[in-house]
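Thanks for the sequence, V.! I ran Adaptor related protein complex 4 subunit beta 1 right away. Repeating your input here for the record:
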Amino acid sequence: MPYLSGKETVKELRRALSNPNIQSDPLRYRNTVLKVIRAMSQGVDVSDLFSEMVKACATVDVVQKKLVYVFLCCYAHLNPELSLLVVNTLRKDCLDPNPMVRSLALRSMTNLRLPSLVEYVEQPLTAGLRDRAACVRRVAVLGWAKLHNLQPGSEIDGAVVNELYSLLRDPDPVVMVNCLRALEEVLKDEGGVVINKPITHHLLNRLKECDTWGQSEVLRVLQRYRPQSEDELFDILSLLDSSLVSPHPPVMAATLSLFLSLCSSLPAVSQAALERVRGPLLAACGSGSREMRFTALCHIQLLLRSIPGLLGEHYKRFFCSYAEPAYIKRRKMQVLVELVNDENVVMILDELKGYCTDVNTDTAQTAISAIGRIGQSYSDKCLEILTGLLGLKQDQITSAVVQTIRDLVWACPQCSDAVSSALEGCEEVLQDSQGRQALLWLLGAYGERISSSPYTLEAFIDGVRSETSMELKMELLTSTMRLFLCRPAETQDMLGRLLHYCIEEERDMCVRGQALLYYRLLQRGIAETRNVLQLRRSDPSMGVLIGRPAEPFSQWVSSFNTLEPLKHCSVEVESTSRGSPEHLASIPKSNADLPDDLDCRQLEMVHLGSDGAAQRLGCPAGLPAPGAEPSVTLSLSPAVTPEEFERLWTQRRASRSEQESADEGDDGTWIEDTIRCGAVPHCSPQSLHAAMQLVNIQTLAFTPSHSLPWKVFLYTHTWRADASCSTLVLGELLYAGELNPKRPAEGETEGNEQTQATADGDKDVKVTLRQQPHDVSALRVFLSVLTTVLHTLSSEVESE
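Predicted structure:
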């Protein structure tokens, strides 16, 4: 047929469909109908041919019937009155001896989607449920779901529901799965299909007969069932064991989701199931389908939240290939960050270093951010890579590196010395506002260590009139003020010029308001300015925590095998496009494990050394009684690196073995004490870390909870109001008792006094402290604060 417009095409097709010569020739008639369908698929409106196509459905040619039914289902809603002419033909076809014709007629009747035809469809659907052909029963079962969806407010006959329940035992597995789907739709208002013990075991025994998606549907529905006994639970788990290692990812994921749902009270079984799916998960990560790989990576991130070392030996499987899209590379790098340990850190960092120069900007920035995340535990190796990337002198790479370095020194202040020497000349390469904003923050925070910081800031100030970013102007104001406090002679003139411009010429009210604030602050004096602009060089909510706490399965099991992991990343690589870190640190972070009523007011940190405070907190054994002591405060700065802590702690051990009798010396002192708070090891590491941060005690390292022996290493600095010097206090908490002590039953007699004493001893946490230089009163203050925090956490855990 030559090319014609839409209207001409319809006229030509109408003439052909009405031509008696074509109608008498079955092959030509079928080809004409095929041309109508082709024109419809090309977007031509052929709804005017509805009456001619209704006549064409009266044929014995099955192919022609399929084509006509496709047309009728597409345009029936535009011609509801003419659609009544098709009902008789469809009902007649439902009685055809050919099962394909019967199933085709039933499917077409339900796909017409006309409420006026419902009364004509019910009887053929009821008959189709009892049809001897499986293909007809499949269509009839789903037809009832379509009928209910067409009229959701109507009630379906109870006999039909009973018939659908009976078809759950149909010999055809597709009919069985379709019945589950239909009952889910029909009984949606009642909670879906009812799953009892006979149905559960019947579905499990026939699970292998279903196809991949049928098995997934059955396993999803079975999550509602709860076994009545432990023996039944393990019988069900035995039936599911083979599906847990299925080569089909949908079946494996649905089985694991059912496993975790059934074993919510058996964490050991859940962990064994997660270890068994390592192979199928790794196979899914190597699938040829990009969508399958992405989904598998998202679910792997969920599993790593509970078992961080689950795939540690297979970290090379998450190396990125060149042809992979950026979104898959990003997820793989997020997984690599979680798999880092002492054995593979060098290999992973070398691999990430190669991604930093990727042609895709997002991939390169994600790799640099991943190196920064790893740097919180392996700072030396990561800083070497980051400073090497600065030497490439590329705008996008330099910007991402400077932002990552800013985040790294915020989390790990001990890296500041190495960073200060690497920032020279970066301002010449940086072009984007986010990178320059990060550089300004670093210049304000560590300007006294960077020799060229005043000259760098002066270049920014000279070009402030052409600057369009409001955030960068505000950061420039803050950084210049901070640098003025430590290097006033070099910064005074440029600060005056900057304040004059921002107050007199700047049009942005936010920038002008901040400049006025700093100007009036300077009028109050340098001491007041220093108190307001005193920079926190580290995030008090972050520390160099060795190890990653494992989350319980219950926190994410409900989102497993859903779209939720695809929308939200479980462990995000920190974004490099954000403002100054202290601005975000001021936003409180929610922590479900941290007690809401942790009251530290009784510590009275300002006057903790007074008599009243000492009487409330008590005096630990082995220390002198508190007298009229000057006020003592605790501080987190200067920071202590893990290496320095280990050196000082090892030195304390060595000195103790050499001089056992000398508890105190000129260079320091150490004590050992016990605190009765046996529930503290059950507290999550996040809660312990956050509680210590509230009173300016830094948690440096810890062992995982629910493991023996349980240890925590911490430190702080004590400052006295009457002295300019400070003392460093290193501490170790050690708990070697039982994690799950057995409680006596009600009415059961207690043991003898010696047994009771032994049980009470299991609740003691041993505290070992090392102080340098020697200051007993400050040490007593620290131990009192530590005792109060541990008692508060222990009481919260015991009350849960």
